[in-house]
Amino acid sequence: MRTDLHIHTYFSDGVFSPERIVDTAIEVGLQAIAITDHDNVLAYDAAQKHINTYGLQNKIEVIRGIEVNTLYKNKEVHILGYFMDTQNKDFVELIKCQQQARIKQTKEILSLLAKKEGIRIRFEEIKKLVAEGGSIGRPHIAKAITNAGGTTTIMDAYAKYIHEDSPVYVQRKTVSPFDAVEIIYDAGGVPVIAHPHDLDIAESLIKELMNYGLRGIEAYHRKHSPACVEYFSTMAENLGLIVTGGSDFHTPNIMNGQIILGKNFIPDWVYEKLVEEKKRIDMA
Q1: Which CATH number, 1.10.150, 3.50.50, 3.30.1490, 1.10.4160, labels domain 103-160?
Q2: What is the mean pLDDT of the chain?
């Protein structure tokens, strides 16, 4: 089954609505997708309503997913979750804490921008850049800085203000990857470490996370070379973990307008293994 298990919408830092994601996925021949917005699961219901309204059930399946932004030894570690019970008490509390941390970080950065750089941006202006209830993040702050005339481009905003060495940047106080994995697993979900190539401590961290319920590695990712895919696929096999993958789609390619949704090759069996793993967790 052609699938893409890592997709973002405008409920986090993507640009497409859940409805447009569904329609685009069908257009490019995908049969199953997972919407994995950062720290919220709001897009799923909108996508599913669109499918039901237009009778698309036989054309595509949407898996409920999430990408939790965590922090470990001052490094960002992203944990994907699939098939969770989103009404689970601890899972609900996880999302609540993550959203509060995002709001606190944003307000602190805006305060420093005003005091140290004379760039005045109201929090309400940031909120308008994301769908209602969605996850505010660094891309929205960078865009707001550019909109306010603080920089000429969003990339310039990142280079000048959105990094740890900037005097106006504040690191988000977020959960640990161990907490995220354990909560997703206890909520009946399949926890997977996202794009591990970004981590120089990937192997040791993955082994440690397995003690908390980690069940998979995202080996297929647009940033992963064929050698990288092979490396993490072999690691998953040796550790008894499943392999997942996705485009990590946020926006069409700015340079050529290309839709990259589903573009990177993900074997058909990836979907089957994910479903099998969910069944194993339910039976445990």
Answers
A1: 1.10.150
A2: 95
